[in-house]
Specification:
Blueprint: H1 2-7, H2 17-37, H3 44-60, H4 64-72, H5 81-94, H6 99-123, H7 132-138, H8 144-147, H9 150-172, H10 176-190, H11 199-209, H12 213-233, H13 249-260, H14 262-278, H15 289-312, H16 322-341, H17 355-373, H18 377-415, H19 423-435
Helix pairs in contact: 2-7, 3-5, 3-19, 6-9, 7-17, 7-18, 9-10, 9-11, 10-12, 11-12, 13-15, 13-16, 14-15, 14-18, 15-17, 16-17, 17-18
């Protein structure tokens, strides 16, 4: 009996302290850097407008109708209701805004996303030591600009967690309670990031594929209601800054594939783009952006081909189909970004914060491959060792670039906190200080 209980302990199957250290190293380093290089200073206009200006207006607003309207108010192409609830909760609890706390809360959303992936990993019956590649891929510093950016980290990371959690519950917990929870998470996702809408048709497809026809009509009605509220009742207006779609389907395909392959070949471009900020936005004249775009697109194409192969082999039927439908969601996100951002140029497919989707895709493909190989212990171990070595090498090559940029931005903001602030942002800051909503740290006013 004792031996049976011991065998169920999470780490007993690894039989290796080295595996535990390898699993924890990227996680510990990630949070150490996060705490060390986060500042209680707003970064770019998003922190000024989406955090400080919102709270200024909320405090001065009168009546429930006006205050609730601010919570659901459109921000660009999104409605960042969840961001505003988090910001408002912090203000009500502590009496003022602290950007370090918001950054931490945002990154907890990423940790929760990785936890959902881990749950799927354990559902596959794989030993915990085999999770090493996922940890080195997901806690990489290549997403440097988002890690210590309050508004962006909350919106982006919870905009990933809620869809993944929704799909996990939908595929693993059939029945009215599971469906209700999944649809609730879809609603929160939609009012966190506009990309949450991509989840809606996937939910319906999951129900059809699982022959859960009795739940299909209810789900369709709930999703239709959410669409109606978002676009009609709340009066959605297309942002004037939305760039036009340029080119043909080839352009959209190249952009989306480059985004999906960003974990690999986009890193150097991100580093060069980051360094250009140091040099007054002047890129290295010898650097060829399109070369990185094509290289990333090739990686993305290999990912998509791998997914198609696993799909033909029955990935959509394994473990409830969570990985299959999650990857479908990620691929559709890549297409959405192509439609909405390709007008700004191919290089935007490779910006740092978008690489999160490539990291998710690579992690899911790895777990799916392991799941298919688990009956062949020898092949399983070889595949795990190769992927572990590759992920660690990728981490060693790319993370120092991201860490350099995190340190650089920390030093810039610490010494010149208003470098990215517009006159309107400064006015917002002054009003926040008068209202007691935020106070710039001493010595940095």
């Amino acid at each position: 009996m004792i031996q049976e209980k011991l065998s169920k302990r999470p780490f007993s199957n690894t039989g290796n302290i080295g595996s535990v250290l390898a699993l924890s190293t990227p996680f510990v380093l990630y949070w150490y850097v996060l705490f060390k290089y986060s500042l209680n200073i707003p970064f770019l206009s998003d922190d000024y407008s989406a955090v400080l200006r919102f709270l200024n207006r909320f405090v001065l607003a009168s009546g429930f109708h006006e205050k609730s309207g601010l919570l659901f108010e459109q921000y660009g192409e999104h409605r960042i209701f969840f961001n505003r609830i988090v910001e408002l909760a912090q203000y009500k609890i502590y009496g003022r805004v602290n950007f370090i706390q918001l950054i931490i809360l945002g990154n907890i959303g990423w940790a929760l996303s990785v936890y959902v992936i881990f749950r799927e990993f354990r559902d596959s019956g794989l030993k915990i030591g085999y999770f090493i590649p996922v940890m080195f891929i997901t806690f990489n510093f290549v997403r440097w600009d988002q890690i210590t950016w309050a508004m962006s980290s909350i919106q982006s990371y919870y905009g990933i967690f809620f869809p993944l959690a929704s799909l996990y519950v939908l595929t693993k917990r059939p029945g009215p309670a599971g469906l209700a929870c999944s649809l609730f998470l879809v609603a929160i996702s939609i009012f966190t990031s506009g990309s949450g809408f991509i989840l809606a048709p996937i939910v319906l497809l999951v129900l059809v594929s699982r022959k859960r026809y009795s739940e299909l009509l209810v789900s369709f009605m709930v999703l239709a209601l959410l669409f109606g509220v978002y676009f009609y009742f709340l009066n959605y207006v297309k942002p004037s800054f939305t760039p036009p779609i340029k080119g043909n389907p080839w352009r959209l395909a190249l952009y989306s594939l480059a985004n999906l392959g960003n974990t690999f070949m986009g890193t150097y471009m991100q580093f060069e783009m980051g360094k250009s900020l140091v040099n007054s936005n002047n890129l290295n004249p010898g650097y060829n952006i399109m070369k990185s775009v094509y290289e990333a697109a090739i990686s993305g194409m290999l990912f998509v081909i791998s997914f198609a192969y696993l799909g033909v082999k029955g990935l959509y039927k394994r473990n409830g189909g969570f990985i299959f439908w999650s990857v479908v969601w990620i691929i559709l996100i890549g297409l959405e970004l192509a439609v909405g951002r390709s007008g700004n140029g191919y290089q935007t497919a490779l910006i740092s914060r978008y690489s999160v989707f490539s990291a998710l895709l690579l992690s899911f493909l790895y777990i799916a491959g392991m799941d298919f190989l688990k009956e062949n212990k020898k092949a399983l171990k070889k595949f795990a060792v190769v992927c572990s070595i590759f992920s660690i090498l990728l981490y060693m090559v790319t993370s120092p670039m991201g860490l350099w940029l995190i340190k650089w931005r920390y030093n810039v903001l610490e010494n010149r906190p208003f470098i990215y602030a517009s006159p309107a942002d400064i006015q917002t800051l002054v009003e926040s200080e008068k209202l007691g909503i935020y106070q710039m740290p001493a010595g940095q006013q």
